[in-house]
User: Which sequence fits this backbone?
């Protein structure tokens, strides 16, 4: 134990039970047949044992085994990911494995996030993606609450920490059999647990359940559920996969609550599984995870802060918080942010404004901007809430025809995780001849591009305002003098 750490509850019946669990750990680790290194190091909660599995030159992701679970069998679930990633896998203190065998961490005290932070710091990981399941989802959410900036993205499978299933079925089908088996092991009781949990026909899982239920003092307290307020600062993309057959965390309850508590991008997907997914299901899950991580790596450009899209400005942060409090889902937030910029921020040409707003924060402060910077403000309100957004352009006539030259018009691209697609929204501002609307299906933009006047809809997706437009904004004194008689592409 580390100096000054008070020992919690020893989690095994006796030393012999601990030795048997360690022997099972070594056997199942060898059976994985994968390269690994291991390390022991001190944390504020006791000594932690951790595996680094796979090719160390590949990008790292972090996985944490579930409650009363073990790292080697957790890795068995995620083996397909080793084709593309190196997996960092710590043994949770006070649970089966080789970390401190004393229960020194509490979900109810929200301590797991502090421990995960120390694990990642030991390996020098400033920001990383996670794959977690069951109880470890609540551990992850504790980390996401305290250190949201250190999460790139995360896959949550049959996750705790969001919403639990009904209590009585859990008590009857799981808790009571667990207690019975601890004091009086029997094949019938073991079969009952496996039938409810999953893993039927897998002798490795059966051996673990027998060992865990007969010689280990299980953590029976459910993990805490997190609130929207606690998750307010967390914006990283989530892929949540759950099953309606899961007795602990059924999909309908998890998905409904997730849409309320997470304000960043959330994608949900139902799987056909009990609480413990089969190997066949996990192949599909891992393929989805790989695509999800790659997609979010590509989306990262549309989440960055830039001088034009300066979402960390206090005025924009305050507006984001205000919109969050009014919104009951991510799509509702996007709609509210869009309509605020469209309706409450006046277009500088419409009111012949003398001030030239040059970035998102200035648009919000001044209450006016042209389409270029109104699109920057909408992007800032979205990116500051973890929603990918970019800028798209059209080349349009300044007048009703081409007699007065051309102007570059800007609008927004927005990625909708729930629908897994990009849409375009035009927050220019409506008037008698302009009727742009929020729409998830058919585009309802401010202007059509008319071929007869050589107008162009580029249908592009840019991560920042074009440098030529930024230069014009910095040099012009009067908005009405802006001219862009050039093509962007």
Assistant:
């Amino acid at each position: 134990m580390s100096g000054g750490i008070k020992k919690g509850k020893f989690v095994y019946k006796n030393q012999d039970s601990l030795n048997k669990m360690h022997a099972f750990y070594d056997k199942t680790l060898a059976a994985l047949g994968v390269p690994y290194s291991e390390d022991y190091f001190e944390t504020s909660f006791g000594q932690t044992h951790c595996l680094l599995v796979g090719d160390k030159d590949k990008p790292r992701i972090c996985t944490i085994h579930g409650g009363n679970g073990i790292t080697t069998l957790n890795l068995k679930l995620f083996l397909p990911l080793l084709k593309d990633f190196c997996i960092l896998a710590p043994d949770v203190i006070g649970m089966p494995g080789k970390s401190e065998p004393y229960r020194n961490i509490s979900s109810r005290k929200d301590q797991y996030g502090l421990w995960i932070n120390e694990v990642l710091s030991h390996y020098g990981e400033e920001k990383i993606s996670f794959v977690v399941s069951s109880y470890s989802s609540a551990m992850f959410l504790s980390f996401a609450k305290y250190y949201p900036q250190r999460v790139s993205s995360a896959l949550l499978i049959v996750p705790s920490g969001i919403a639990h299933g009904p209590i009585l079925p859990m008590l009857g089908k799981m808790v009571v059999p667990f207690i019975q088996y601890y004091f009086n092991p029997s094949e019938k009781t073991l079969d009952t647990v496996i039938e409810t949990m999953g893993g039927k026909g897998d002798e490795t899982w059966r051996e673990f359940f027998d060992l865990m239920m007969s010689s280990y003092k299980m953590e029976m307290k459910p993990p805490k559920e997190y609130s929207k307020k606690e998750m307010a600062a967390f914006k990283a993309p989530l892929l949540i996969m759950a099953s309606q057959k899961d007795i602990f965390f059924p999909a309908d309850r998890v998905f409904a609550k997730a849409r309320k508590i997470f304000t960043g991008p959330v994608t949900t997907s139902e799987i056909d599984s009990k609480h413990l997914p089969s190997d066949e299901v996990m192949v599909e899950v891992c393929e989805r995870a790989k695509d999800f991580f790659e997609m979010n790596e590509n989306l990262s450009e549309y989440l960055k802060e830039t001088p034009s899209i300066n979402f960390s400005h206090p005025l924009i942060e305050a507006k984001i918080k205000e919109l969050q409090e009014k919104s009951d889902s991510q799509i509702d937030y996007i709609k509210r942010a869009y309509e605020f910029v469209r309706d409450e921020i006046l277009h500088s040409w419409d009111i012949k404004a003398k001030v030239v707003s040059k970035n998102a924060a200035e648009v919000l402060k001044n209450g006016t901007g042209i389409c270029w910077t109104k699109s920057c403000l909408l992007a800032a309100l979205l990116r500051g809430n973890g929603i990918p957004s970019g800028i798209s352009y059209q080349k349009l006539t300044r007048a009703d025809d081409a007699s007065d030259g051309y102007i570059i018009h800007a609008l927004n691209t927005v990625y909708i995780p729930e629908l897994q697609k990009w849409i375009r929204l035009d927050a220019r501002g409506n008037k008698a001849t302009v009727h742009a609307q929020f729409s998830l299906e058919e585009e309802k933009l401010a202007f059509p591009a008319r071929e007869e006047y050589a107008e162009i809809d580029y249908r592009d997706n840019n991560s920042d305002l074009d440098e030529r437009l930024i230069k014009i904004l910095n040099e012009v004194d009067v908005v009405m003098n802006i001219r862009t008689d050039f093509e962007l592409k």
Q: What stands out?
A: The chain has a mean pLDDT of 92. The two ends are 63 Å apart (CA to CA).
